[in-house]
Amino acid sequence: MDTWTSHNLDEAMTRIADDITCDAPGARISGTQQYRDFLGRFMVELTGVETAAVFGDDTTAVLFYYPHTANVSDAPTAECFTVIGGKITRSVLVFDRPSFAPPQR
Amino acid sequence: MDTWTSHNLDEAMTRIADDITCDAPGARISGTQQYRDFLGRFMVELTGVETAAVFGDDTTAVLFYYPHTANVSDAPTAECFTVIGGKITRSVLVFDRPSFAPPQR
Lengths: 105, 105
Fold this sequence. Notes:
Helix content of chain A is 23%, strand content 45%. The first copy, chain A, is built from 3 helices and 6 strands. The first copy, chain A, is of the alpha+beta class. In chain A, strands 2-1-6-5-4-3 form a 6-stranded mixed beta sheet, with helices on one face. The A-B interface holds A 23, 25-26, 52-53, 55-57, 60, 62, 64, 76-78, 80, 92, 94-99 and B 23, 25-26, 52-53, 55-57, 60, 62, 64, 76-78, 80, 92, 94-99.
């Protein structure tokens, strides 16, 4: 989480397996290049992160957090990681797309 | 979770504190009557639940699951409960509303 908010994409990617798959709302991401692009787009929107809950065991980690962006800070996001050999091989990401939509003008 | 899929709303509500608050996508629910109405509407849509991850400690429980409805079974939902004195006092519910929208005809 510190890695994300420090906007250090290279450091974040060291924890990601080559065959990463990520299910995100409306998107299925496969492989490190797609994941890096996805994570990079997320990071540049991020002004901070408020962590609500973190749990895990040897193979699974679950995060609950509030990403802070320029417009939104009260919409929760949850992520369930599968970890094999110390690397994240699968991520299931849940957030409500409408809650993060740009404000209507 | 078994309680939900058995559609036993009375049983489910025994675990809910009188002053429950629930933040759901696009909705803030307060008190047992509102929560009961909300949970009831969810239950009637539910044909099953596939649990992906469950973690918790004395005060917090985090669930990751795939609610199965008539139209959708591959959209994840996450929930973070705060538990005080054995009852759920707060729930933060995350799902992507568009992923559960009825199919376009």
